[in-house]
Every structure is written in C-alpha cells, then in structure tokens.
Amino acid sequence: RKEVEQDPGPFNVPEGATVAFNCTYSNSASQSFFWYRQDCRKEPKLLMSVYSSGNEDGRFTAQLNRASQYISLLIRDSKLSDSATYLCAFGGGGGADGLTFGKGTHLIIQP
Amino acid sequence: EAQVTQNPRYLITVTGKKLTVTCSQNMNHEYMSWYRQDPGLGLRQIYYSMNVEVTDKGDVPEGYKVSRKEKRNFPLILESPSPNQTSLYFCASSPRSDTQYFGPGTRLTVL
C-alpha cells in the first residue's frame, strides 16, 4: 500500500469555480499535516498546515479526517493564479524525521 | 530576509566527477534536509540533520553524503555522480522536523 496517495490530475477548472482534492495517508501515526503549493520548476512553498478541527485561510480550507486517514484542500472562487501543483505532506509518523510528500495534484484554472 | 539558498542552481557534469551542492539558511533552524524530485516519483528525502554533527539517512541516501559542521550549512556531496542522479534537488530547513522551508532548487544533469 502506498504511503501517500494523491490524484495527479490534471484538474481543469474554470475560473471562479470551487475545486477540492484529497490526499490519503497510510501511516496512522502521522501527527502533522500540510498542503504545499509548487509552481513549475520552483520550490514547494507551504500553503497551510492542517489542524484536527479544520482551518481556513481566505479562499482555502483544509480538513483532516483521521478516521479515514485523509486530508482535503478546498479552493473557493478559484483564480488563474491558483494554477499550480498541490502537494500534501505528512510528518511525525515515527519513521525517518521530516515529511513524506505526495506526488502532487496538478491544477489548471482556465479563463 | 529569511531564506534558504542553494548553489549552484544549475549544474551539468560528467559521470564520476565529484561535486558538492551547498545549502545555507539564515533562520537559525536546527533541522535541515535534502530532497530530490523526479517526474512520477515526487519528492523523496535523501538525508536530514536534526542539529550540528547529527545526520541521518532518509529514503534514498545511496550515492550521497552530507555534513553538518555548522548550524547554517548543510552541503550535499556526490562523490561519484551517475546519470541516475540527474534530478532536481531541494534543500529545506525547519525549526523542527515538519513545516519545512525549501531552497530554490538545484537542477543537476549527470552525463
């Protein structure tokens, strides 16, 4: 079973729409959860941490479902500038320190 | 400005010629790590360091060495590069083992 699974996409979404994607993890001991954004040929940048109670940052909402072992990211009123690859990451699972990353979901916002 | 820097940003070399990619952070972070990113494989951790003189293997350490003589620097050493080490490399630092901040990346080609 893969450690982290993400739908690679691409997700083609019209500007202004709401888009959501999930990321599942296999290590039930994971304790920290994140969404990163990566633009083409650039470094990943932290988008937001994911807390147990769910959290929101402007148009972005992240949620954690420990029972089903997945996190989600919802983007409302999508902008052209939201086009990027979104990586989920998990840490604190008792293995090597650091984060385990998903392979990313490619999102394309179309005008 | 808080940042992680890597040098060089681009490097083309030949098989067997030793090379070093430098990484430096100015945030006084204890934790640093190296990742490589390959199409279809995502980000994979090579080595990490939890503090000065403390390093450990990540998921794909074969063919690489690291050192952590100072808190701010964490160079990645390829003693005898091979074509399968052609990749995009990212250094990252963190005040703890999650929430990592990435450098701009080094694109390495080994001929």
Topology, element by element:
The complex is a heterodimer of chains A (111) and B (111).
Chain A lengths: L3 E3 L4 E4 L4 E7 L6 E7 L6 E5 L5 E3 L2 E6 L4 E6 L8 E8 L7 E3 L3 E6 L1
Parallel strand pairs in A: 2-11
Antiparallel strand pairs in A: 1-3, 3-8, 4-5, 4-9, 6-7, 7-8, 9-10, 9-11
Chain B lengths: L3 E4 L2 E4 L5 E7 L5 E8 L3 E10 L2 E4 L7 E2 L9 E3 L8 E8 L6 E2 L3 E5 L1
Parallel strand pairs in B: 2-11
Antiparallel strand pairs in B: 1-3, 3-8, 4-5, 4-9, 5-6, 7-8, 9-10, 9-11
Can you walk through the features of this model?
The complex is a heterodimer of chains A (111) and B (111). By secondary structure, chain A is mainly beta. Helix content of chain A is 0%, strand content 52%. In chain A, strands 2, 4, 5, 9, 10 and 11 form a six-stranded mixed beta sheet that branches. Chain A has a five-stranded antiparallel beta sheet with strand order 1-3-8-7-6, with no helix packed on it. Chain A is globular, with a radius of gyration of 13 Å. Chain B is 0% helix and 51% strand. Chain B has strands at 4-7, 10-13, 19-25, 31-38, 42-51, 54-57, 65-66, 76-78, 87-94, 101-102, 106-110. In chain B, the strands form two sheets. In chain B, strands 2, 4, 5, 6, 9, 10 and 11 form a seven-stranded mixed beta sheet that branches. A four-stranded antiparallel beta sheet of chain B has the order 1-3-8-7, with no helix packed on it. The relative contact order of chain B is 0.34. The A-B interface holds A 32, 34, 41-46, 49, 87, 89, 91-92, 96-104 and B 31, 33, 35, 40-43, 45, 48, 50, 56-59, 88, 90, 97-105.
